[in-house]
């Protein structure tokens, strides 16, 4: 019963947040409808369960990994600058995976990646991307391995911390 209520509260919150965003955009546009433009650009391959986040310092959206819909976990990094997608090829990077969480750590100016599924097991590793290099980070009190974790910045200090969907619903 409590989980049903938590699920309802979460769905209500998401619906209200979406309505707020739509109202805000409409107000900023003077109630004009935005115009979508399809662009023909080099882009990441089709995928699902990847993760993306916006780097406010560099002005790019970073996407990592995902699942190609057959049996392959993807382990590539791409960045979108608002005009073009660019692959970011590095010697060191996280294992290919899907269902991982990513968020931008504004305090330290890095994208943080946590967890996910690599095709054989859930992961509990933490990685950081500075726009040029992936680096694995040893976290003294890392959460247990999980997939589809939500990562979000703490408003007070901008640091990023992971939470599973179950933890969000239980809150």
3D architecture notes:
The protein has 171 residues and is an alpha+beta fold. 19% of the residues lie in helices and 29% in strands. The chain has helices at 2-28, 165-170; strands spanning 51-55, 60-67, 73-80, 85-87, 101-105, 110-114, 126-129, 134-137, 150-153, 160-163. A four-stranded antiparallel β-sheet has the order 1-2-3-4, with no helix packed on it. Strands 5-6-7-8 form a four-stranded antiparallel β-sheet, with no helix packed on it. The protein starts with a helix and ends with a helix.
Write the layout of secondary structure elements.
Layout (H helix, E strand, L loop, with lengths): L1 H27 L22 E5 L4 E8 L5 E8 L4 E3 L13 E5 L4 E5 L11 E4 L4 E4 L12 E4 L6 E4 L1 H6 L1
Antiparallel strand pairs: 1-2, 2-3, 3-4, 5-6, 6-7, 7-8, 9-10
The beta-strand count equals 10
Beta percentage is 25-35%
Put simply, the count of helices is 2
Low-confidence stretches: 1-27, 164-171
Strand order of the main beta sheet, please?
1-2-3-4
């Amino acid at each position: 019963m409590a989980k049903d209520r938590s699920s309802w509260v979460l769905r209500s919150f998401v619906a209200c947040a979406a309505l707020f965003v739509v109202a805000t955009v409409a107000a900023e546009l003077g109630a004009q409808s935005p115009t979508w433009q399809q662009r023909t650009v080099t882009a990441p391959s089709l995928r699902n369960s990847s993760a993306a986040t916006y780097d406010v310092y560099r002005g790019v959206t970073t996407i990592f990994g995902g699942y190609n819909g057959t049996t392959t976990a993807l382990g590539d990094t791409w960045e979108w600058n608002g005009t073009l997608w660019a692959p970011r090829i590095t010697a060191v990077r996280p294992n290919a995976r899907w269902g991982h969480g990513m968020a931008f750590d504004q305090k330290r100016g890095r994208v943080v990646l946590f967890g996910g599924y690599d095709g054989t097991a859930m992961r509990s590793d933490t990685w950081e991307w500075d726009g040029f290099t992936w680096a694995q980070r040893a976290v003294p009190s890392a959460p247990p391995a999980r997939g589809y974790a939500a990562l979000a910045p703490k408003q007070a200090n901008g640091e990023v911390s992971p939470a599973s969907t179950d933890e969000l619903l239980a809150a």
